[in-house]
Amino acid sequence: MDDRSNTIAGWVLAGGIVALGLSIVSGMYFHAEAPEKEGFAVAAEAGGEAGGAAAVPIATLLATADVAKGEAAFKKCAACHTIAQGGANGIGPNLWASMGKPHGHVAGFSYSDALKSIPGNWDFEGMDKWLANPKKYAPGTKMTFAGLSNPEERANLIAYLNAQGSNLPLPPPPAADAAAPAADAATGEAAAAPAADAAAPAPAAPAAK
């Protein structure tokens, strides 16, 4: 019985030695050396609101904004706000004639200090930023709305808000938009000038004196 136990123990020990040896050999065979020259690190691009594309100014979007579509978009706000003249405050303040007014202008409504501390009035750019991300515009605001990511939808909503008792003149689109055709025309004229010069006969050389 003792000889049999010793034999089994010997085979187990031998098997362990063989397994250890195979592990060492395979590790030496498949060992991957680090490359002498590291590859180039790929830096991730930081995307903006529109995937890195330049944002269209709100003044440009307001030029083609649709008040009717803005009224439909306001349904997302109606759970907290009224907008009729003389309407009651709800979870949020009544928004009649709110464009152009100071932040926190509705008497009797308990605004957050974060919003009341924002200087200036509700202008078009400020309202666009607020509707895009209230918590970014006024960190600490009590507003729980996540915001509207679509710039055209914000422009439509702002046009609707403006039409409800404010009626502020819309800001003109950036001058660059209007200047683009003129710049293209000027470029065309400049390109045509050298061709005209090339077609003109060369002046005669002055006589030697």
Helix content: 40-55%
Distance between the termini: 134 Å
Taking all residues together, what is the mean pLDDT?
Answer: 77
Given the helix and strand composition, which structural class is it?
mainly alpha
| Overall body shape | elongated
Helices and strands, in order, run as: HHHHHHHH
**What's the number of helices?**
8
Strand content: under 5%
Low-confidence spans: 37-52, 190-209
Radius of gyration: 37 Å
The tally of beta strands, per DSSP, is: 0
Question: How can the largest sheet be summarized?
Answer: none
Short summary of the structure?
The protein is mainly α and 209 residues long.
Structure description:
This protein has eight helices and no strands. It has 209 residues and is mostly helical. α3 crosses α7.
List the helices and strands and how they pair.
Blueprint: H1 2-29, H2 58-62, H3 67-73, H4 113-116, H5 124-132, H6 134-137, H7 151-163, H8 175-199
Helix pairs in contact: 3-7, 5-7
Salient structural properties:
209 residues; mainly alpha; elongated; disordered C terminus
